[in-house]
Structure formats: structure tokens, C-alpha cells
Write a structure and sequence with these properties.
The chain is an alpha+beta fold. The protein contains two helices and five strands; from the N terminus they run ααβββββ. It has a five-stranded mixed beta barrel.
Length: about 100
């Protein structure tokens, strides 16, 4: 009887150790290389559509949100763009087309 209680206690302690120490460690190691879905890193590389544009600034719609945008190259309304950088509430964008005019 004493042996059964000891075996059950060791089994319970071992289960709790695996559940609260080993599994979270495995999940942390597995998920640390995954790209963040929120914040600045989650915005980089997203594709948006220009709603309005004048000279080098305008507004871009990304994931249902309207962002202030800047670009070094001239763009036009309706064009698709890729977010390259985020500075506060302003995104830096580039055209979604490559040098040959084809969509990437």
C-alpha cells in the first residue's frame, strides 16, 4: 500500500513538472522564431492600397486601417504598395511592382 502511494505521488510530481516546465519551454523555443503579428514588425511587408497621394505623401489602406504614408518615388491613387518601415503613425512604402512593371 505504501509503495502504491509513493508511486502515485512521484507520478503526479513528474506530470506537474512536465506540464509546467517542459511543455512551456518547448513552446517558447518553437515559437520564438515566428514573425510577430502585431506591432511594427507585424506591419513590415504588408501590402496596402493607396487611397490618396500628392507628391511624396499620401494615405494608404492596410488591413482596414488608413495610414499616413511617404515614399521616395512618385505613386498614384489605387496603386498597391508594400510597407518597408514604420515611424510613429507614418509608414514608408514602395511600389508593389518591380523594375519591369510586373507584379512581384
Amino acid at each position: 500500500m505504501k509503495t502504491a502511494i509513493i508511486i502515485l505521488a512521484i507520478g503526479l510530481l513528474l506530470f506537474e513538472f512536465i506540464e509546467h516546465a517542459i511543455f512551456p519551454l518547448i513552446w517558447f523555443i518553437k515559437d520564438r522564431k515566428r514573425k510577430s503579428l502585431c506591432g511594427v514588425t507585424g506591419m513590415l511587408g504588408k501590402i496596402g492600397k493607396i487611397k490618396s497621394w500628392h507628391d511624396s505623401t499620401g494615405q494608404v489602406l492596410v488591413n482596414g486601417e488608413l495610414w499616413r504614408a511617404v515614399s521616395d518615388k512618385p505613386l498614384s491613387a489605387g496603386e498597391s504598395v508594400v510597407i518597408k518601415d514604420v515611424d510613429g503613425l507614418t509608414v514608408r512604402v514602395i511600389s508593389f511592382k518591380n523594375d519591369k512593371g510586373n507584379i512581384k
